[in-house]
Write a structure and sequence with these properties.
The protein is of the alpha/beta class. It has two domains: 149 residues, SPOUT methyltransferase, trefoil knot domain (Alpha/beta knot, 3-Layer(aba) Sandwich); 73 residues, tRNA(m1g37)methyltransferase, domain 2 (Trp Operon Repressor, Chain A), CATH 1.10.1270. Helices cover 35% and strands 16% of the residues. The chain contains ten helices and nine strands. The chain has a five-stranded parallel sheet, with helices on both faces. A two-stranded antiparallel sheet has the order 3-4. A two-stranded antiparallel sheet has the order 8-9. The longest helix is centred in the last third of the chain and has 19 residues. 20% of the residues are buried.
């Protein structure tokens, strides 16, 4: 995968060279191509922003420096062009999996009060939001997006099952997890997880996932096709007032 990034702070993306993501880049499973928008400024002060027409607070990124920067990328290497914006569709695991199938992507990191709409209309294919909140720029959003994409690419994680068993992989939360020691501050690991009975352990994990999803993110269940067993379990839990 080739990921192009348009930004005024290319140094922020140096963090990608660490951990599992860094290893994937070193293996050349992923190529990161950072382009500095300021290098395409039209004036000696490297200014890439201006006051919005019609008045209003703050500054806007000008279309021309952005257009010059994206044109540095061969059209066959741009792939889907994504702008990070509160106006975009909210990122989900399903969207991440869909985007991970792209061979090329170009990420636009806006700043200030946003980007001249003419650049968005002409060059951007998708607008993505991480949630209903505002950040100072698109770089952190882009980092989160890149991390979520690269971690599910083949060869990034040592165990492929880590991806298939992730939270949201089946539309629900993953549920509780435990490790050593067996007793921590008088709290014991659930006995079933120590039993060695893989069928009972699997059933417990599915039940716990369903419980945690209902308690924390019940709206997720509206988009999940529950099995008959899961429906029955949920009904039993509600009847017993366990939830």
């Amino acid at each position: 995968m080739n990921i192009n990034i348009l930004t005024i702070f290319p140094e922020i993306f140096e963090v990608l060279n660490t951990g599992l993501i860094g290893q994937s880049i070193q293996k050349e499973n992923v190529f990161i191509n950072c382009l500095d928008i300021r290098k395409n400024s039209n004036n000696k002060h490297n200014q890439i922003d201006a006051k919005p027409y019609g008045g209003g607070e703050g500054m806007l990124m000008m279309a021309e420096p952005l257009a010059k920067t994206i044109k540095e990328i061969d059209e066959d290497k741009r792939g889907v062009v994504i702008n990070f914006s509160p106006q975009g569709k909210q990122l989900t695991q399903n969207l991440v999996e869909s985007f991970s199938k792209n061979e090329n992507m170009t990420l636009v990191c806006g700043r200030y009060e946003g980007i001249d709409q003419r650049f968005i209309d002409k060059y951007v294919d998708e607008e993505i939001s991480l949630g209903d909140f505002v950040m100072s720029g698109g770089e952190i959003a882009a980092l989160s997006f890149i991390d979520s994409i690269i971690r599910i690419l083949p060869g990034t994680l040592g165990n492929p099952d880590s991806v298939s068993n992730d939270t949201f992989s089946n539309g629900m939360l993953k549920g509780h997890s435990y490790t050593r020691p067996e007793i921590f501050e008088d709290i014991k690991v659930p006995e079933v997880l120590l039993s060695g009975n893989h069928i009972k352990i699997k059933d417990w994990k599915e039940e716990n996932s369903l419980i945690q999803t209902y308690l924390r993110r019940p709206e997720l269940l509206n988009n999940v096709k529950l099995t008959n067993n899961q429906k029955k379990l949920l009904e039993e839990l509600l009847t017993k007032d366990i939830l």
